[in-house]
Amino acid sequence: MNLITAGILGIIEGITEFLPISSTAHMVLISNLMHLVQSEFVKSFEIIIQLGAILAVVVLYGRKYIRDWACIKKVIIAFIPTGILGFIFYKTIKSLIGNQHVVLWALFLGGLGIIFFELIYRKKEIYEGDISVITNRQAFIIGLCQSASMIPGISRSAITVISGLAMGIHRKAIVEFSFLLAVVTMAVATVYDFSKNFNSFSVDQFDYLAVGFIVSFLTAILAIRFMVKYIKDHSFIAFGIYRIVIAALFYLFIIR
User: Which of 121, 149, 220, 241 could form a disulfide with 14 if both were Cys (CB 3.0 to 4.6 A apart)?
Assistant: First the structure.
């Protein structure tokens, strides 16, 4: 890895983290295109630079929700399933990062799932409103569904938003809740991975992490703003099609 590849991966992370297309899948695939070996550091890098994307959410939404204890409670409840399962299956999950076949199948099937859901869903929100309308029970179910995104390629954003929509939560409310849930989920995952691996990082590798962090923060701000505007008038079908096309192209022309 060098500073240029660190910056490229930072851009990929920032753009894709909050879109329903899987940031991990894109970083793995782009890394392989750049012939970047999926070493333990690269796997940790792909997890740790998520802190930049987290900071983007804090900057954009922190003032709005920092004192909303009811909302914070729901986010914590939603995090519990992923936190427990992530701790138990940490080694297994990390071993899957870099497996292009797992990533591509997750992208493809996830794309089909998004399209199928949107076609039968057709904006059947039971009620409108903000995050306050989400119940503790719904928050826990959303968090349970989020656990599936530990498989690289599933997309945390996609599965949390779709699970919320399936329960009748308004699209804007569940998207914002997904942003906030990402803060806790990615912060804990990053701190845990960093605590287990930072002793093995070289000085140069810390520079790469810094570049990836800064670039992912800047691009994530743009991605979040785009997502909030996009959902006002669009479904996720375009993202589903994109996932299928990317998976097919990589299988047909790139994977050996």
Answer: 220
Per-residue pLDDT averaged across 217-226, rounded? 94
The pLDDT, as a whole number, for residue 20 is 92
Range of the domain at 92: 3-254
Mean pLDDT score of the chain, rounded to an integer? Answer: 86
For range 168-191, the mean pLDDT: 87
Tell whether the model's pLDDT for residue 117 goes beyond 60. Answer: yes
CA distance 181 to 76: 8
Residue with tokens 């992208």: 107
86, 139, 157, 59 alpha-carbon torsion, rounded to 10°: -100
DSSP the chain: --HHHHHHHHHHHHHHTTTTT-HHHHHHHHHHHTT----HHHHHHHHHTHHHHHHHHHHHHHHHHTT-HHHHHHHHHHHHHHHHHHHHTHHHHHHHTT-HHHHHHHHHHHHHHHHHHHHHHSS--S----GGG--HHHHHHHHHHHGGGGSTTS-HHHHHHHHHHHTT--HHHHHHHHHHHHHHHHHHHHHHHHHHHGGG--HHHHHHHHHHHHHHHHHHHHHHHHHHHHTTT--SHHHHHHHHHHHHHIIIII--
- Out of 45-49, 106-110, 138-142, pick the least confident: 45-49
Structural domain count, the chain: 1
Min mean pLDDT across 5-19, 50-64, 210-224 is at 50-64
